[in-house]
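Entry 14. Ran structure prediction on the chain below.
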Amino acid sequence: MAYSQSPAIGQFNNQWRSKVDQTLLEQLDEAGQVEFIINMREQADLSKADEIAQKSARGAFVFEKLSGLAKTSQAPIIIELERLGARYRSYWVSNMIWAKGDPQIIQDFAGRSDVAFIYSNPQTELQVQAPSSRIGASSTNLDQLWNLELIRATDVWELGIDGSGIVIGGQDTGYDWQHEALINSYRGWDGSSVNHNYNWHDAIHDGNPLCGANSNVPCDGHGHGTHTMGSMVGVDGQGLIIGAAPGAAWIGCRNMNDIGQGTPATYIECYQWFIAPTDLNGQNPNPGAAPDIINNSWSCPISEGCTEPDILRQAVENVRAAGILTVHSAGNSGSACSTVNTPAAIYDASFTVGATTAQDSIWGSSSRGPVLVDNSQRLKPDISAPGDLVYSSWPNDNYTTLSGTSMAGPHVAGAAALLMASQPALIGDPDHVEAILTQSAVPKFAIQNCGNILGGTAPNNTYGYGRVDVLSAVTQVMEHKTYVPIVSLIFLNAFENEAVN
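Output, C-alpha cells:
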C-alpha cells in the first residue's frame, strides 16, 4: 500500500520538527535537492548474537535479522520515494535510507510514526597531516620502524605468529592494491590472478578526479588509506616488514573521495558491506567473507557531517554484534580534555585508539576523554599505540611518514590480528580480544587530569588502559594453551593464578 502524505502535518502539527536534524530544518525553505538519511524507528534485536560462538554463523544471523527487518519496514518509504522520483539507497546495517530530493518531503516523512529521526548528510572531511617527509622509495633505515618494536610485534613474529589466517578490513580513502607492500596480502590476489569480488567495495558514487566513482578496482587518489594499510600488513619490495601483522590478508572499502571527503552515508555503506561483502555489482552478499577486524582511521565531526552524535552508533554496534572488532582512531583535536568528541570514536562499541610517540609518551594532538558530546562521561581512548612519524606505504610504490591517531589505529588492528592468530578461538569474539589487549597494555600515566579520573591512575582519559603490548597479550593466551572466555575485564588480573581446563 502506497504512503499518502497528510497536509495536516505541516499545517497544524510542529512535532515533526523534533525528529529532524537542525541542519535540515534550516534548508526546508531552500530550493533545490538536499541529501538526508531516514532512520527507521524499528531496529533489529541482535541480543542472541552473543550466544553464537562460530563467527560465520554469528555473521549470518546478524545479516539475516538486519536485512529482513529493513526489507519489510522500509517498503512503504521506498514506495513513496519512487513515486516522488527521489534518489535513494537502502541500508540494513542500521535500518536507514539515504535519499536526495525536495526539502518538502523531509517534513512529510518526519510526520510518520515509523520514522525515528531524519539526519543531515553533508560532506565530511578527513583530518590528516600532510606527509612529514619527502615521499620516495623504500628505506632500509630500521630506526624508522621503532613503532613495531615498541609494541613488541617483532617479538611475536619470532614466535612464528604473523597474523596468518586473519582478515583485516579497512575503510578509508581507498588502497593502492598493486603497491609492492600490499599486493601479496590482498585477499583478491593469489599471486597470478586477481578477483576483486568480495574483496573491494566503493561507497563513493559521485565522480572525482583520479579514482572516479563506483570503481571496480581498489584505488587511492589521496594516499591516506594506503598508508594505514601498510601499517597493518605491509612488507616492502626488499622484504622489510612495515606492518604489525604481515601475514594477515586485507580487504577494503572506500568511504572518502580523493580529497578526503565522505558522508555519514558512505561510512554506513562500508560498515554494511563488511558484515556481508558483495560482488562488484553489489549483489549476493556473503557474511562468510566478512573480515575479522575493521580499521577506521577517520572522524566525522559536527561541522562536517555528523551533526547528531548517535548517527553511526547503531551501525557500529551491529558490526560488533556480527563478531567483528572495529578499531577507531581517537581524533587529532587534543591536548584538551573531552576532545574525543566525534563519531565513531565516541561509542562504547568502538575500540578507540590514542597516539603515542617514539619516546612512549602521548602525542600532543591526540584526543582525550571523557566523552561529553553524548553526555556519557565515557572513558576514551580505550588504548594507545604509536602514531607520531610512522613510516609506511604511499601510492605508486612510494613510502613516507605521517603523524596522527590515524596512524595509531592500524597498530592496534594489527595487534588484534596477531592475537587472534595465536588463538583462533578469539576470532569472532571482539569483547574478549579487546579485554585481553587492554589488560595486557603497558600502563601509562599523565599529569593531566581529565574528567573524574586522575591521570596518575590507569586507565585514564589520556592513554586509556595504556600503550598496546602485543607480546604480553599473546603470551598470556599461549601460556594457558586453551582459550577460556573471559567473563569480565578483571578476569585477566586473576588469569595467572587460575588453572585452565
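The first strand starts at residue 34 and ends at 40. Will compare against last week's run tomorrow.
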